[in-house]
Amino acid sequence: MPYWLDVMAVFCCARVLVSCGSDGVHIRPAAVNVPTVSSVPTQMGAGEPTSGPTASSEASSPIVRGRDSEMQDLQSCILGHWIHSHEEDAQGVMVYRPANYNFPPSRGRRGFDFREGGELVYFGIGRADGSEQFSGSWVIEGSNRVRIKVNSQRIQPFVLQVVSCDDQALKVRW
Description:
With 174 residues, the protein is α+β, with helices and mostly antiparallel strands. The protein is 16% helix and 32% strand. A hairpin with a 3-residue loop joins β7 (131-141) and β8 (145-150).
């Protein structure tokens, strides 16, 4: 067989592999409207596409929303144990979910337990992907900023800018 036929056969095989999925079905590239569609894990299942505001549209005007999009007091909204859902992070906005959320497997997760009176428990990623806890404090600065101080020489004080908050998700810039 001539050399050019070998090259053509390899090219055709590569083209078929690239354009077909694992089950042999042709995959067409699809345009995705990033500002209106995002992959957000839900209690029903992780990674289901949902429509609505995404990090890019929320980040332009920090809003704290409660149930039914009513304004909610930031202090009461952030109280509780929040765990980083890094799979949902997008465009500089980090997503935290309540501790009872059904997270996919992960090699360690950071988190905060905001308690009454400004008391804080910070959960860092420790040895062997475990969790390590540090006490600390938090205070609200302005309408959407929370100053965090962790009682550890390794962790400097920092500020969370709250993008949105409700009973299902706390979205922040750090």
